[in-house]
């Protein structure tokens, strides 16, 4: 359902992604791993056109989501971002109440029906296992939540507008181990409904949560296969060296 072919990406003269081709199936979790600076986040940000915001960049190749070229001139970027939600490394709730954080996307998309908003907020908070923890303080500031709760709130905010794809850029790197395992459990639950693509520095995390893993190095996709295979019997020597900790 996501198909990319011969994707090249440049920051000015710097060739950051080199000929990347990858297909991602619906309702799977795909992890991107690789040494710092290898292009994982750059590639992830192409999925919802976040790199459009950076001046002097250039993209070539094909980037299809559900058969549609998302870089076609006819594509409306805000519509695309409703379909392809994103969660970042550091939890970034808005300076608003817990309720309004989750309702935000619905309101900016013109949804005025109070009952619907109420229902979506509740569903989204339930799907991130946060409802029981926050249902009695929905009017409190999101900043009163712990870091792990804030990250689950940001996931709920992304889910409220019913995306089909959820991008996560190192979503647990700022969290403690217990919050991390809650998010990992959540990822496992969410893939029933969503297609998830996650960048992680943590190889154990990739091994725990993903169905497929892509190993990137110096802007190239060195290997992309079933997670179990990649971590136990990789095809490429570079992958073997990386997963056994010989560099990176
Ligand atoms: N806005 C930018 N302008 C210029 N170069 C950039 C920009 N963002 C990233 N790069 C460069 O592109 C390359 C890939 O960066 P990217 O952030 O995608 O790597 P990464 O694999 O996600 O790294 P990390 O794991 O450290 O986050 C790096 O060499 C980086 O310096």
UniProtKB/TrEMBL annotation:
InterPro entries documented for this protein: AAA+_ATPase, ABC_transporter-like_ATP-bd, ABC_transporter-like_CS, P-loop_NTPase, PstB-like
Annotated membrane topology: Peripheral membrane protein
E.C. numbers: 3.6.3.27
Subcellular location: Cell inner membrane
Catalytic class of the enzyme: hydrolase
Molecular function (Gene Ontology), one example: ATP binding
Residue stretches making up the ABC transporter domain: 2-243
GO biological-process terms attached to the record: phosphate ion transmembrane transport
Any Pfam family the entry gives: ABC_tran
UniProt GO cellular component terms: plasma membrane
Principal place of residence: membrane
This protein's record includes keyword Transport: yes
SUPFAM superfamilies the record matches: P-loop containing nucleoside triphosphate hydrolases
PROSITE patterns referenced in this protein's UniProt entry, alphabetically: ABC_TRANSPORTER_1, ABC_TRANSPORTER_2
Keywords recorded for this protein, A-Z: ATP-binding, Cell membrane, Hydrolase, Membrane, Nucleotide-binding, Phosphate transport, Translocase, Transport
Function recorded in the entry: Part of the ABC transporter complex PstSACB involved in phosphate import. Responsible for energy coupling to the transport system.
Protein name: Phosphate ABC transporter, ATPase subunit
Organism: Bacteroides coprosuis DSM 18011
């Amino acid at each position: 359902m996501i198909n990319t072919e011969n994707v090249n990406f440049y920051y000015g003269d710097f060739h950051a992604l080199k000929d990347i081709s990858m297909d991602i199936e619906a309702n799977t979790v795909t992890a991107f791993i690789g040494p710092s600076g290898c292009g994982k986040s750059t590639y992830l940000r192409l999925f919802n056109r976040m790199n459009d915001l950076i001046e002097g960049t250039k993209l070539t190749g094909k980037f299809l989501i559900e058969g549609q070229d998302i870089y076609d001139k006819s594509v409306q970027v805000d519509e695309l971002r409703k379909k392809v939600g994103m969660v970042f490394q550091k939890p970034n709730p808005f300076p608003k109440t817990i309720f309004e954080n989750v309702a935000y996307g619905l309101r900016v998309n013109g949804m005025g029906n109070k009952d619907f908003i109420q229902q979506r907020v509740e569903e989204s908070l339930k799907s991130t296992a946060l409802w029981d923890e926050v249902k009695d303080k929905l009017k409190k500031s999101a900043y009163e939540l712990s870091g792990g709760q804030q990250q689950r709130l940001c996931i709920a905010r992304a889910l409220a507008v019913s995306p089909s794809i959820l991008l996560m850029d190192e979503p647990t790197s700022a969290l403690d181990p217990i919050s991390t395992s809650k998010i990992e459990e959540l990822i496992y639950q969410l893939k029933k409904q969503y297609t998830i693509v996650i960048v992680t520095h943590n190889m154990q995390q990739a091994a725990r949560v993903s169905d497929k893993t892509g190993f990137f190095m110096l802007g190239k996709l060195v290997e992309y296969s079933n997670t179990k295979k990649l971590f136990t019997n990789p095809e490429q020597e570079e992958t073997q060296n990386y997963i056994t900790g010989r560099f990176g």
